[in-house]
Amino acid sequence: MAQKPSIPKGTRDFSPVEMAKRNYIFDTIKEVFRLYGYQQIETPSLENLSTLMGKYGEEGDKLLFKILNSGDYLKDAPEQLLAEKDSLHLTNKISEKGLRYDLTVPFARYVVMHRNDLALPFKRFQMQPVWRADRPQRGRYREFYQCDADVVGSDSLLSEVELVAMEAEVFGRLGIDVVVKINNRKVLTGIAQIIGAPDKIVDITVAIDKMDKIGLDNVNAELREKGLDDKALNTLRPLLTLAGTNEEKLATLDTLLATSDEGRKGVEELRFVLDHVAPLGLKATVEVDVSLARGLNYYTGTILEVKAQGVEMGSISGGGRYDNLTGVFGMHGLSGVGISFGADRIQDVLNTLDLYPPHTLETTRLIFMNFGDREAAASLQHIQALRQAGIACELYPDAAKMKKQMAWANARAVPFVAMVGESELADGTITLKDMATGEQQSLTRDELIARLNS
Predict the structure, then answer these.
(1) Using an 8 Å Cβ cutoff, are 444 and 450 in contact?
(2) What is each CA distance from 251 to 256, 268, 280, 347, 349, in whole angstroms?
(3) Looking at domain 178-290+299-308, which of 3.30.930.10, 3.40.50.1110, 3.90.1150.10, 1.10.1240.10 is its CATH number?
């Protein structure tokens, strides 16, 4: 007996209904991106490992899907590494490419390769799948889509203001109540300085980025393992548990980071963004969260993350400023800032809260019943005119029993059925049935078009 087929853990098939939902999300995000002047690009699914490695920190590198070289991939593998099962060093010998981990690093590579063709500042958006060898769980997949928007070639914090506004616009259109959490990596650097552990900034950011998942006590335990003493942890605690309004939090940070130039600069940048966002009347809560770290090493300034209210889910969007990313590809001094929407998590939120508009799942608006060759031929002429009027419709392909055709229309959740039988052929009309109410009416073609477009 043939083995039942399966798909890899952390990946999914999408039914027509699910794709309708996903396209609603993609179309909404894409409309907002274009509204704000962003231009679309695409990059390959595969990147050279030299492009990807070292950009996401040690933990990120472990989550890269690496692709074996084609042909005899063990041909150039040293016997000693094979014998020692040294996978860390063996990988470089048998794999040159990997699946992209995110869209930001490939975008930085794109900017460097096409620098002479770009008018800076360059505002791009990109909506493609990415892959991470993570442990699958609800809201976390090994293959998932990201919807990114980035600005490169400008240091202006007005770009951050625009991105926060875009976050609010997208989720407002989707009907999701969100809180946009915002922080600054310079603030985190300042914190590392005042607790006397500037060399531990990476360890600190990686640990506190898990605050929501593991809690403060476990974060402290992890930092203790990394070499921070109790004095440093006691100094850190009030910084990670700030309360009050955004202005009150910033005032506290001003005081606590008084001896750190870098930390105070981070507070100034946070205040600029918040002061410019406040008058815009955004349909989202914007909140300073010092525990937000965004555990990717390339962030250097503003960082933000979006959480949905009323549902247990990780961040559904996030991003930040990365001043040094293109420098690793030989293009120095180019600042960038961007955000990424997690389409898969957004879909999970919309599913949980049942926030899809009624029209979202509608594909075909009208199905013509098939009563035989003459009737089908006449129906096809009507269908052609309806399609030209922008109405999605189709003809049942076989002259089957009416019960079977109606059941098919019901299974497709089609709102209307049209019937062209002998009497309709005789008087040039179409009988329209509303599948929700059962109401039927006889209409001319023009009347039918007006009815469906009303």
Answers:
(1) no
(2) 9, 11, 23, 38, 35
(3) 3.30.930.10
Which amino acid belongs to residue 139? Answer: G
What is the distance between the alpha carbons of residues 292 and 195, in angstroms, rounded to a whole number? 18
Asked whether residue 90 carries a pLDDT value surpassing 80, the answer given is: no
Q: Which of 191, 157, 162 is nearest to 290 (CA)?
A: 191
Q: Which residues pair with 368 in a beta bridge?
A: 395, 418
- The beta strand positions in 252-360, using DSSP E, are 285-288, 302-308, 317-321, 336-342
DSSP 286: E
Question: Residues 10-53: pLDDT tens digits?
Answer: 999 999 889 999 999 999 999 999 999 999 999 999 999 989 98
Q: What dotted CATH number matches 362-453?
A: 3.40.50.800
Domains 9-64+101-174+310-357 and 178-290+299-308 share a fold: yes
Over residues 273-284, the pLDDT tens digits come to 999 999 999 999
- d(CA 163, CA 414) in angstroms, rounded, equals 38
- Amino acid residing at 195: I
**Position 224, amino acid:** R
Q: Under DSSP, is residue 86 helix (H, G, I), strand (E, B) or coil? A: coil
Distances (CA, A) of 249 to 114, 272, 379: 42, 14, 67
Phi, psi of 177 (to 5 degrees): -80, 120
Residues 344, 144 contacting (CB under 8 angstroms): yes
Question: For residue 74, what are its two tokens?
Answer: 């063990």
Measured CA to CA, the distance from residue 297 to residue 286 in angstroms comes to: 24
Secondary structure class of 257 (helix, strand, coil): coil
Q: What sign has the CA pseudo-torsion 38, 40, 44, 45?
A: positive
Q: Model's pTM, two decimal places?
A: 0.84
Residue with tokens 């001319």: 444
Beta strands in 226-362 (DSSP E): 285-288, 302-308, 317-321, 336-342
Element (H, E) at 346: helix 343-353
Give the pLDDT score at 362: 75
Nearest-angstrom CA–CA distance, 443 and 428: 9
Q: CB–CB of 147/125 below 8 Å?
A: yes
